Amino acid sequence: MPPPAFTTCSPLHNEGGMPQPEASGKADPDSVKSGIPSLPQVHRSIAVPGGTSRSANARRMLAFAGPGYLVAVGYMDPGNWATSIAGGSQFGYSLLAVIFASNLMAMLFQAAAVRLGLASGRDLAQACREQFPPRINLVLWFFCEIAIVACNLAEVLGMAIGLNLLFGLPLIVGVCITVVDVMLILALQSRGFRALESVVIGLVALIGICFGAQLLWLHPPLATVLSGFIPRSEIVTNPEMLYLAVGIVGATVMPHNLYLHSAIVQTREHSRTLEGTRQAIRFATIDSTVALGLALFVNAAILVVAAGAFNRPGTPPVTELSDAYHLLSPILGVGIASAVFGTALLASGLSASVTGTLAGQIVMEGFLQIRLSPAMRALLTRLIAIVPAVIATAWYGNEGASALLVFSQVVLSMQLPFAIVPLLMFTTRRNALGALTFGRPMSILLWSGAALVVSLNLWMLQRLLTL
């Protein structure tokens, strides 16, 4: 397959058809994109202030703040809770190294998504449709849809468990109620993308505050916690640890977030000169990295709380979210600890609904050029996720729901190569992004991360086939 070279849909072109932003700052007559961008109702809807002073630079950075937090909610969704609680309860702090490494990889891959979106004017799905044959695109779209359904499944189950724990609603009733939350989120979009971002940032902050309180109540030994960030060979040699480690990777590096991020960074109306695009990439990458740093704190805090509260000699491991909820207050000696845990879980599922809804719309429009209304697209995706959730909760109860949560994250991990490899093909080869391509050191780092993800997935596939 020849290396990709964008020839259409680029906001700025050079003579060879490459997406080369012009250095002069004058408007390019060819800058009108062919076709309709993803999320056309919010595309370039947020103005970026100009100026060269320090205050102008600060305002520009604030203008780019937001998309990273929409992406970050996918890194702290209920699926992360299931894998981190299971890992911390069974193996103590040992898997903190996996969470840390996974978040670093996530920062790198999301930076690549930012670069693709801003440098080429395309999201990842549009770039794939343009550069790859129809059969390959069909395969990529199919696997991406599986990832979105798995993500929605985690959100549905997480919110249903949260409603059950806080308000005593039966799990099946909670699963059905989750259809409504998508409609509420879509209603926010009508008020503008900034309104949606503000609500999500508020929910993310709430989750962070809840787990900050849990850590204060727990008082975990700092030296022991820090030792968990040191990689151990046992993670690879112990099949049960490795299974959870792959689940953590799948729960942390979310494949559909790469499609989402490459689209929503285009909501900013920035200067499309070479320097203006470089600055936009820099500010958007800072936004993404800071937001994912908060996601790292939340993911690590979940595992630390599980390890400190539930990993004790002579007691069985806690793998169910409901068990964790009921045990936290007695173990921590704080009456509201369980309620705080349940509130954060509910906020996690609600905020992550944004990710699945928007990503589903972007993927369908980008790969298939089928434009359904956001409400219809969200409803279809959510209904597909509800079917296995209802079956699992009706047949197995809380135990089945929690097991399905962990399995959904393993499924997500197995879809990662189908998103990462195309993304790196577009961002590490100079003929695709020209002067805005990643340099050799960053390219080597990105491809090394991709090789690690593919290796983990091959191991997981072999394990599943030999069960």
Automatic annotation (TrEMBL):
Q: Is this entry keyworded Membrane?
A: yes
- Source organism's superkingdom? Bacteria
Q: Record keywords: Transport included? A: yes
The way it spans or sits in the membrane comes to: Multi-pass membrane protein
Q: Where is the signal peptide?
A: none
Q: Which InterPro entries does this UniProt record tie to the protein? A: NRAMP_fam
Alphabetical UniProt keywords: Cell membrane, Ion transport, Membrane, Symport, Transmembrane, Transmembrane helix, Transport
List membrane-spanning regions.
61-76, 96-118, 138-161, 167-188, 195-217, 241-260, 281-310, 330-358, 379-397, 403-424, 444-461
Q: What is its main location?
A: membrane
UniProt-annotated location(s): Cell membrane; Membrane
Q: Where is this region: Disordered?
A: 1-35
What function is annotated for this protein? H(+)-stimulated, divalent metal cation uptake system.
Family, according to the entry, reads as follows:
Belongs to the NRAMP family.
Q: Know the name of this protein? A: Divalent metal cation transporter MntH
**Source organism of this protein record:** Comamonas sediminis
Q: Could you tell me the gene encoding this protein?
A: mntH
